[in-house]
Design goal:
The chain is mostly helical. The protein is built from eleven helices and no strands. It has a domain of 201 residues. Helix content is 76%, strand content 0%. The termini are far apart.
Length: 315
Amino acid sequence: MSEGGEVAEGVGTLQGDSVTGVSGPGGPGGAAGPESMDGREELPRSAVLPRHRSPAPNPLAGLVRTVAELGAMVATALESLRLGLRHGVPVGELIDQCWFLVRVTTLPLILVSIPFGMVIALEVGSLLQQIGAQSQLGAAMVLAVVREQAPVATALLIAGAGGSAMCADLGSRRIRDEISAMEVMGVQPLQRLVLPRLLAATIVAVLLDSVVSVAGIAGGLYFGTHSLHISASAFFATFGELSQLADVWVALFKAGVFGFIAAMVACYKGMSCKGGPKGVGDAVNQAVVATFILAFFVNFVLTIVYFKFVPQKGL
């Protein structure tokens, strides 16, 4: 065979699935049949290729990702505070964010706190009435509303109304490349955008805690005087029997921590979102859910620490 024929035969041998340029069972230039050129039967390609199995899910992978993301949130917040100490706080943006949070959360908080206080008065008052101690409703209301209900309700409303708006605003800036443009121009986005929101959420949460406490106690007073038929003087006379000034301070501290957490999660999710408008919506949803989980967990830890180190007042 000539040199050209040897090259053609070699090419035909190397091509496994379709042999071109060599006569076979399918005719000249056609595809090879089920048998190879040497007479042996060829196996299907699916039987030759190995099957790739998906790796078994690692139960610790999700926990590691969650801890890493939480660390990134805390690092972002601390970096914002560091830049604020170094370059100052944008006062105008801080005032705008404070006013925005007050405007969108005050009325919903009051509307939530009044029926919540009435429910507490109903549950606790029914029990106290059975033992003939309905006059102690005021003391129970102070512990339930001031210490627990007010900080948690403030955190939920700030996360749901204010935090979602923060996340959507920063996420929209991210997908429009506004934040990237600020970085190119030498402007610190953490100091200009994140820091005012962190401080505003913390300040407004502390201020709104008092409003929630007053509204909740007012709801309990109304229910106690109209359903349990106790006098307003008896309701207020028992305020100091179980509560103390430390309860007020720990409630304000909890509210400030919850507000900071809500802004921290919202700003981080907004600054790191991707995927267009759908990504912004997903980031808002994740921010609200993560804030609720963190708020309840931190509330549990702070309550344990409070009961461990602060002596409680008894009858």
